[in-house]
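Hi team,

Filling in the usual template for the complex we talked about on Friday. All components are listed, including any nucleic acid strands or ligand strings, so the model treats them as one assembly.

SUBMITTER: L.P.
PURPOSE: interface mapping
COMPONENTS: three
RESIDUES: 972
SEQUENCES:
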Amino acid sequence: MLSLKRYPERPRGSLDPGLGSQGGGQHAALLLHGLQAPRTEAKSLFVSVLFYLFAIGVLVSALSVVTRKNPIAAAVSLVVCFFCLSAMYAMLDAHFVAVTQVLVYAGAIMVLFIFVIMLLNLRGEGGFVRPSLAPRALAGVAAAGLVGTGIVFALSAVTARLRADSSAEFGTIEQVGRTIFSGPYLIQFEVASALLTVAMVGAVVLAKRDL
Amino acid sequence: MNASLLWLIPCLPLVGAVVIGLGNRKLSRIVSGSLASGMVGLSALLSFGALAKVIGNHETLTQTAYTWMKVGPLDVDVGFSVDPLAAVMICVVTGVGFLIHVYAIGYMDEDKDADSCWRFFAYLNLFIFSMLLLVMGDNFLLMFVGWEGVGLCSYLLIGFWFENADFAAAGKKAFITNRVGDFSFVLGLFWLFWALGDQATLNFAELQGVLAANPALVGGVGGFAVTGICLLMFGGATGKSAQIPLFVWLPDAMAGPTPVSALIHAATMVTSGIYMICRLNFMFSMSPVAMGVVATIGALTALLAASIAVTQNDIKKVLAYSTISQLGYMFLGVGVGAYAAGFFHVLTHAFFKALLFLGAGAIIHALHHEQDMRHMGGLRKHMKGTYWCFVMAYLAIIGFPGFSGFFSKDEILWLTFATPPEQIAVFGSGFPLPTILWVIGVLTAVLTAFYMSRLMFMTFAGEFRGHHAPHAAPKVMLWPLVVLAVLSVGAGLLNLPHWIHVEAIQGKLHHFLDPVFSGANVRFDGADSSLEIPVMVGTLLLIAASVGWAYHLYVRAPGKAAAIADKVPRLHQGSQNKWYVDELYEAAIIGPILKVSEAVLHRVVDVRIIDGLVNGVARLVRGVGTLYGSLIHTGQVQAYALAIAIGTAVMVLAYTVGA
Amino acid sequence: MDQIGLHIPLGLSAALFVIGMIGVLTRKNALIVLMSVELMLNGVNLAFVSFARQSQSVDGHIFAIFVMAVAAAEAAVGLALVILLFRNRTTVELDDLNSLKG
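RESULT (copied from the run log):
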């Protein structure tokens, strides 16, 4: 599994599958070490550009979800959106969340969605703007726009920048696990699992034809 | 008899009314009647005690029961004041009232009344209570309470047999006509209160003092304010005492049981107008114009009513118009300033008119509610006791010398003749109004003698023309008649005229009432006093001729009356139809009012505006609700989500932009 | 990462939320509405994660995980309802579901 730990803490070569054998690893280590100092700025530029790229990906795919006529197209767009989001989480040192995002959202929920779309054999009907309900579309957009305005207004007061880096074990599964199980969130965690059980039972009861 | 017991006099009948009223139909005729009579009897005893005290001590008994209202300059108590005038009046009211209560026990023995007798006696007691309040009240407001109360009881009792629509309508007519008068009275009261300014008082004694001290408050003698006030109050009196223009209710009021007619429409309620003017003599004599109006209307009413009575065939109607006519005499008396004489006539009239009505009641009762005189006749043989009592009253009313009516009527006529014109200067001081009024008075006396003789002859003389054989009156109805007969004869002794020249027995009532009327400065020097005896004799001769003519027409030559009527059909018809006064009122006043009510007040104001407003509000609410429902309750989930989104937007904006 | 202002991920989170809201209010197909709801939740998750990084506290991550759990439960039940709906009315268009009208 690719570890995105920040260099220079990253142990040289040992967790880097792309650098081949020991000899090649030493070569690469010399290379990297040689390139370290002048690459700091380039690295940070690269990171920023990547961040913006993924952000644009999220935005475009989200818009796509909302505007596609075909529900399958919308579902696939949503999957893309989740992936981009997962990448962004990873860049924000939320390692466990990033993984869980792909596993749960893209892997489980979207699969469920696609199952149901296929099951109901839905065609695409009605697009974004339906002439008979255009006023409602406008109203919806307007309402959302109002909310957005408020948020933008609030954001204009934000002048801080993202932290340069995080601590080594920030966002790792160890830290998250420790905080949940020996921290203040144990009960909530157990309740969440109960919630999932209830939801499961509920879904089965609702959708069954006969017991 | 102590002044502190004064409150009992009106309250005993009130207690009687309440007890009988609450007893509902469990009390029979005899029980409720006896209870009612007992209460009035006790009141009568107390009244006579009060009278004795007032005669003995020459004082006015007063008692203030409690403070009614104290608002700014207005200070009104529930207080009773029994001066000589009131003392006599309450004795008359309770005494005659007692006799009539007892009589009524016998009269109301019809089967159809068995269940409602308790109501009758409760109302009668209530009436006595109201009348006593009117008489004994020491201020305008308490008198007005009594004034309204007697009006109410009159309505209740006239329409006693309310199942009959005509009787109920008569009751309504009485009440509404009274109300018109009451409105005038109240306006006068307001004006008086307003004119007095910060000296304002509604207490009679205080008022007399205030007006004596600064008469300029009401414009001085002959001033506009005092004339207006007096005329407005006299307007109230015309309603209550059935004078022109508000007399139309009294003949219809004969729809009530005869004891009611006797008590209310002969002896007591209808005299309250005269009583009021006597009470306010100090104010009325400040305005010659008002006095002139009172006297003129009194005289004209007397003549008008007498002219109607000569052609009526219903015995009670004749007596009703006779009452109106005699009330006219009383107003003539007080109008020219002869307050004591007018009040004396109230007294004598109470006795003989009550007797006439009770006698008529006995006749009607005996003939099973036959009231048409054309079906009577020859009752002298069948109802001896009633007949002789009736004769006493008859002689009194026509003014036969020696009977009470003679003394009272004669005094009024003479004092009218002797009034100086400036005392009642309505048409200017040069106009000989007193003489004209005297002529009208004499003419009325002649007509009175005529129609009363006609009544006597048609009822008692000749042969019986009716259907069922009559029976004599029961004892319980007879002995009140006897008592009243004695009074009709003897009451004259109370105020023998001065030409008797026996100091000890003459003018007793006059002297007794002197303190009450001393505030009014009136004189009667408009004519030579040596003319008094000739005038009286002349009047008596005319009356005798009238009686003789009636005898001729109704006993000797029975067909002659009809023949004369045929010669003057218009006059006869007009007289028999009450000179179409009711029809005139209907066309000129009542009809238009009803039309306007229907067309404007009902169709426009009530239906369109008020109903429109109320229904409009309902429609508006329903419209808003429907609109709301169609806009918001669409059933579309996303519309609801939109609402939530808008709410969120508002909140976000409020917190971010607003903060 | 300090070249990027904090308002970028936060603005993106807001944009995701708004886009999701537009989808919920505007689309006729019930499934697409559910997907838009997921979008909104993800926007929230992004905000949580950004703030967690700023304050170096994993509480934000934990909450994001809980959000995901709830989103999963909600998606499951919601889809069961859609199936039920389709079974009864052969349509999943929200415009046709107006029994609450009036």
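MY TAKE: The CA atoms of residues 64 and 80 of chain C lie 24 Å apart. The mean pLDDT of chain C is 90.

Thanks, L.
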